[in-house]
Amino acid sequence: MNQKYPKTPLLFIALFGFILVAASCSKSNSGGGGTVTTPATPIATLGLYEYQSGLNKRIFMPIAGIGTETVSYVSVFDTGSTGMTIDANGILPASMITTSGITVTGDSVVVNGITVTSKTSTIVYGDATSSTTEYGNLAYATVTLGDPSSTQITTKRIPFFMYYKIVDQTGKQLTAHSADVFGVGSGVSYTNSTIASPLSYFTTTNGGISGFKLATMNSLYFNGNGTLVPGLLTIGLIPSDLTTAGFVLHPLTYFTVGGYSDDIPATITYNGTVVSSAQILFDTGTPSITEIEDPKATGVGPLAPSSIVSITTNKGFTFQYIVGNSGNLTSIQNPNISGDTRTIFSLDFFVSNEYMVDYKDHEVGLKNN
User: Are 44 and 199 contacting, i.e. CB atoms less than 8 angstroms apart?
Assistant: First the structure.
C-alpha cells in the first residue's frame, strides 16, 4: 500500500478488534583485565497478526500505547509506504475532534502525552477507481508496539500523522481506525518530510544497524480470526545480516521528493513475455493482486491460473511463481494507462521470501526461503 505518488494501488483494508522491553548491549570486564565487547544483537523481535478476508491477506502491527494512552489497535504493516498514520478518535478527547479538523490552539497542543501540531495535510492511498483520503495533523508521541501477550517495545518520541477523518473516492466517510497504517518503507513521507518509518528511530548499540527483517509469513495463519504469529518482525540488524545471512542486497536510489525509494530494477517474464528495465516494489500493503506494468501490453487484465511469472533483479535475486485461483493473483497493466511505471508485488511474495531493509546504508535485502 503506497502513498499516492502518483498512483498507489489500494485493494482492501481489513480491520479487526485486537488490540516493553528492548534488548540492550553492554561491555563487561574479562577476568584478564581486558574489555570484552558484547556482540551486536537485534533491538527486539515482535509478533505480527496475520489475517485474511476472502482473497485479501493482511499483516498487522499491534499498537498498545500512544503517549500516555493505553490503546488496543492494529495497524496495516506496510513496506510500500513510509510513516505511521492513526485515527485520533479514541485517543484524543472527543471535544478536540470536529467535522472540520482537530482543534489546536497556537502552534501545538499537548494532550495525553501527544503533541498535536497545527500543521495539517492529507494522505491519499489508492488510485482513481479505489482510493481513500486521510485528513489530519502532524503529531509527536511515544508509541508502544507489540501485543500485550508477547514482546512489546516503546519508541522514543516520534513524528506521525494523526487523522480525524477518512473518506473513500465517493466522499463517503469510513469508520474510525479503518485505515491505520504502519509504513516501514525507506525515505520519508510525501505528506511531511519530518515523518519516516517508526522503526528507523530506534537507537542501535555495539555495532547494530538501523533496519528490520521480516521472516516468511506462515500461510496456515491467514484466517478470518486474526492470528498473532511470534517472531515475524526483527527490529535492528546485525552485521552478519548484511554479509552471511544469504540476503541479496540492493542499493536504493535517492530522490529529492520522498528520499530513498524501495523500488528495485529488474527484468520480469510472464508467459514468455519479457519486461526489461522494470521497477519493482515488494509491498506487504497490497493484499492480493500483483500488478505487472508492461509498457508494450495491449491485452491488459488478470493473468490466467497456471501462468508463470519470474523476476531477476539487477543484483541477481531470482523468484518464480505460478498464478493460482486463490493465491499469487496477477494482473497486467500498461503504465501509459495506469499512470504508474512500478510493478507492485503483493503480500503473497512474503509467504515464500524473506525481506530486509537497512535504513543506515539504504539497501533492501531479498532472500528465497
Answer: no
Mean pLDDT of 301-308: 97
> Do the beta carbons of residue 87 and residue 132 sit within 8 Å?
no
Residue 5: inside a domain: no
d(CA 217, CA 201): 25
CA dist 148 and 18 (Å) reads: 10
| Structural domain of 300 | 241-368
Q: Which three cell numbers stand for residue 117?
A: 501540531
CA atoms 341, 336, 324, 284: torsion sign: positive
Residues, the chain, total?
Answer: 369
Q: What is the CATH number of the domain that holds 194?
A: 2.40.70
- Give dist(CA 200, CA 235) in Å, integer: 9
- Alpha-carbon distance of 178 to 335, in angstroms, equals 29
Cα 30 to Cα 25, 35, 37, distances in angstroms = 16, 6, 10
Distance CA 361, CA 100 (A): 41
CB 113 within 8 A of CB 13: no
What is the pTM (predicted TM-score) of this model? 0.90
CA distance 208 to 239: 7
Average pLDDT, the chain: 90
Share of the chain above pLDDT 90, in %: 82
What would the pLDDT profile of 308-323 be if each residue is shown by its tens digit? Answer: 999 999 999 999 999 9
**24 burial level (CB within 10 Å; 0-12, 13-18, 19+):** exposed
Identify whether 82 is part of a domain: yes
Residue 183 to residue 77: CA distance in whole angstroms: 6
- Per-residue pLDDT, 139: 98
